[in-house]
Amino acid sequence: MKKLFIVLGGFFLLLLAAVFILPIIFKDDIRKIVDQAIAENVNAEVYYAPEQFKLSLIKNFPNATVSLGDFGVVNRAPFAGDTLLAVDEFNISVDIMSIVFGGQPRISGIVLNQPNIHVQVLENGVANYDIAIASEDTTVVEEDTSSKEVSFTVDHWEINEANVVYEDLTMPMYMAIEGMNHEGSGDFTLDVFDLETLTEVKSLTVNYDGVEYLSNKKLMADMTLNMNLPEGRYTFKENSVAVNDFTLGFDGFVAMPGDDIDMDITFAAQDNTFKSLLSLVPGVYMEGFEQVKTEGELDFNGFVKGIFNEESMPTFQVKLLTQDAMFQYPDLPTAVTDIDVDLLIDNADGNLDNTVVNLKSFHADLGSNPLDARFLLKGLASYTIDTEVSAKLNLSELNQMFPIDSLEMRGIYNVNLVANGTYDSVSNQIPQIDMAMSMQDGYIKQAEYPPLENISFTSTVKNESGQLAQTDVQVNDFDMTLAGEPFQANLFLTNLDDYTWDLTANGTVDLTKVTQLYPMDGMNLAGIITANVQSKGKLSDVEAERYAQLKTSGSATIKNFNYTAKDFPQGFTIANAEATFNPERVTLASFEGAAGRSDMRMNGYLANYLGYALTEGEVLRGQLDFKSGKLDLNEWMTDEEVEVSEDTTEVAMEVVEVPKNLDLVLNSSVAEVLYDNMTLQSLDGKITVRDGVVRMNNLNFNSLGGQFAMNGSYNTQDIARPSFDFDLNIQNVAISRAYTTFNTIQTLAPVAEKMDGDFSTRFKIGGLLGSDMSPLMNTLDGKGIIQIADAAVKDSKLIGAITTITKLSNTDNVSLKDVDIRAEVRSGRVYVEPFDVNIGNFKTVIAGSNGIDGSIDYLMKMNVPAGTVGTAVNSAIAKFAGSDETISSNIILNLKVTGNYEDPKVRLAGTEAGGGGKSSVQAAAKAKVEEQAQELKEEIAQQKKEAEDEVRRKAEQAKKEAEEARRRAEQKAKEEAERAKQKAEEEAKKATEEVKEEAKKKLKKLFPPR
Description:
By secondary structure, the chain is of the alpha+beta class. Helix content is 19%, strand content 53%.
């Protein structure tokens, strides 16, 4: 016996050691199996914390438990990056005994702690939970797989503190669940078993097709369903479902033997107190609801019965009846009493369009104020309505019945409504209506917001025929004071087929107080608007754009207006503005305001303002006198600011589109304009905005130490290819400042970087603009004259290169005096005609071109004494002259300059006899330029001829190919016709032979041989 105890003790010690050791030994192997199973079966990114992967035989002994911590599933396309599931801890327990003795693993428990689940279904039906990888092997193998199956008998499952969002765009439906605890069990290995579940939800919101049916409701469901899997029949047994304090019980079944869903379910309230129904009312179910005093009982029941599929719906009915009910909040003196409700919702044939909603009666006494109503609605396609509402409410008493925080109300509100008839949108038929409303001595004040005071009006709505065109809406003597500012209005609206109105409004509106009542996210609005408006008109005149028929007139003043928004951070202000208007135009008597850092003053008129405001594409026309002390255009052309240093910013500019529906003339006078890196002063002229183009006429301003006069345009009709076209007259502008200011000069005339002096010009230039408002240099075209009175070039690499090859002394200074340079820009390359400069003491004529890539191609003719040049040049001159003797007279050096400004290449291109002085040098240079121009012209002509020859050759080739194709087609048709003819002849011959043979047979029958 002692040995037996020793053996048993050793066995249990070994078993206990195995419980602790085996999970350690097999942990990594099991984790590899889990990872492999996920990779092979899940089409999503699955993650978990490796250090939180645990295997335990103790936690749920005799079950083995696998725990995954920080577990989640992230979708791939088309939901790439969206998290389907995130779980704090995920436990799965497997019954060890089922493995040891049964050979069939059985899942005994699943626990999810704090899961966050986001289910999405797109309009095309694709769902983010469909992440299983389909098996590629579709071969059916008949074998006994019972030993390999996993039994889904789950002894227990739990979901703790779950948050679930379900979005289904196919319905469309949105459901949000917060704080859900759910547990259940069921033996799914049986054909018939009971499924027991318990669910609690702290907050449930359900929105279907834009209508929110449940909002932040508590939910509890304790359900037992009998599951008959072979028949697909699920029967309600003991169950209850509670929304807030309203609890329902269900009886009946749901069956799904095939595609149809057969149901026969009855339901009824388990708690028949009025208080449970009251818990469903939004805003009523709140802290302290338990202390609400109530009386009265209710009867709530209904059924759903029939077949549900794509073609049919089950019938249904809902009844609600309460009598002599009341409720009273704690700490409030007045109760809502005598509450009677008799409601029936009935559908007898399964056609939703035939649903009937019948509120047979509704009555409640709100203190001493009765509220009575009845409502009958038949059909959901073409509604038949019969309703009556009567109420007289003292708003001050509502605060004594309902806990309305921070809201104070006063006033007597009356409403009487009778409506009877059919609503049909196709025939524009509506019920006959007789409604009257009124308010006296109204007052509404909410904490932190200004009060609405002295609210009064009378209003009627009448329709005696049921036709939209014979409806009259009248609002008389509407008065209101908003924080001390009065407002009055009258409105008569008739003919709802063609809205016809007669409106008068007079009063003052403080926008600051309006935004306190109606906050606008990301927007600040302030200012005082005083208006006196009269308007009469018809909607048909608006739609037909007969704005002259809209008898709208009045006046308006604006003071201290201020507007800023997230997408308009610069802000817009109006210190003071006065305007009068009629149907044709708004006359602006005065306007003083600012847009960002730019101040402005205006007067003039705007025409077609109604069309512009009411119809897309209508043009706003007008003429304004515009004045400003400072106009900062950079503020409106900035996409973003990039920090460059502590005290500078680089402004990234973008194309400003000119609206095509503006036709404005601005007679402008601006003291200072900031544009890019320029400052314009004393700007005046006429600016026309029309058809997406800004045109400048006689625009004059001072800048860069000189005077500018310009005519031209900025064109954004094709916003992808904005363009400009300017005619410039510039006087006495510093060359160095022009270089640092205009990137066009930096690109087209880089020599200006080394020049001192002033220039004047008459120049026409145009081209396209890039996305940063900079000219696209390769598109520039223009021509004009550049006048230089006195300028000098110093430290130029080009002059250094000339000195190197000629060995001339005193060439460091290049001077231009009283020089007129004729230049032309073609496709971004500058061509200059011969002009004079002094390089040191030597007169020089320059002509040629340079490009936007920095390339230069110039011919320079220098008039120099032969003895002043170096020995090497003298030898070259002698060779050009055809003599070995050194020439001692003045000569003209032809220097060919190529390369670029940073690396110029200078070579001696030839010499000519001097003696002619300046004129001979110019003549020679001009001749050379003309010679180059002629060569270029001949080259272009040759290219044109070659292009024309190529076009002609291709045309002839195409003609030959077409002729050959035609010939082949004719030949083929001829051959086909010949074959058809031959075949027809053969068939005819064959038929003839057959006829002959048949005739012979008949003759033989008539005259048989003897």
